[in-house]
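JOB MANIFEST
job_type = single_chain_structure
chain_count = 1
residues = 223
[input]
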Amino acid sequence: MLTARLVAKFNSYYAEKPVLTLMITNAILGGIADTVAQTLTTIRQNRIRHSGGVQKDDFVSIEIPELNRKTPLSPVELIPPSRNLPPPFDFERLTRFMAYGFIMTPLQHHWFTFLSKSFPFTETTGFSAVLKRVACDQLMFSPVGLACFFTFMTVAEGGGRRAISRKFQDVYLPALKANWILWPVVQTLNFRFVPLPYQIPFVSTIGIAWTAYLSLTNSAEEA
C-alpha cells in the first residue's frame, strides 16, 4: 500500500535525520498548497471571464475577505487585461512557498519539542496539558509565525519596508482571526493524539488548505 510505504520511508529517514526529513516534507506540502491555490485562482478567473461571471453558489468561487480595504477592487484590478496577467503557473511563487516551509521547519520542530517537554501529557495532567499547549501555541507562536510568513513573502517578492507595512495593515489581522478559527481545533487533536515525530507532518497536511488560503490572501494584496 502506497501510504504504508511512505510512512515507512518517513520513519527511516526521520530516525537518521529528523529535522532535515521534516524540512523536506514541509517544503513539498507547501508546494502542494500553493499549487492548489494557483489552480483555484485560475479556475476563478476563467469563470469570471465567462458571460455571467461567477455565481454566489459556485463551488470554486473563493471569497477573499475585503482585507480592510476602504473601497472594493475595480473591475480592472479584479480582472486585469490579458497582457498584464501573470503566467498560467507562477513557479517563482511556488519556490517561495516551498522555501518558506523548508526554512520554518526547524523553528516549528523546536517549538513542538518545547511544548511537549513543558506540558507533558500524563494521567495526572490529563487534558489540561493539551489545552495549555494549544493556548501557548495560538497566543505565542501563531502571531509570530504569521508575521514571519508575510514578511518573508514580501521580501522574497522584492518588497521593502513600505510594502511590509502595507501587508500588515491590510491582511495580517484578518489572517490571524482566520487562524484562530481553524487551528485551535486542529492543534487540540494534534497534541492529544499524534506522536511528536508526526505532529509537524500532520499540521502540514491539514495545513494544505490553510496555506492555500494564505497564498490567496498574499496574492490578493499584490493585485
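[summary]
The longest helix spans residues 161-193.
Confidence is low (pLDDT under 50) at residues 60-67.
exit_status = 0
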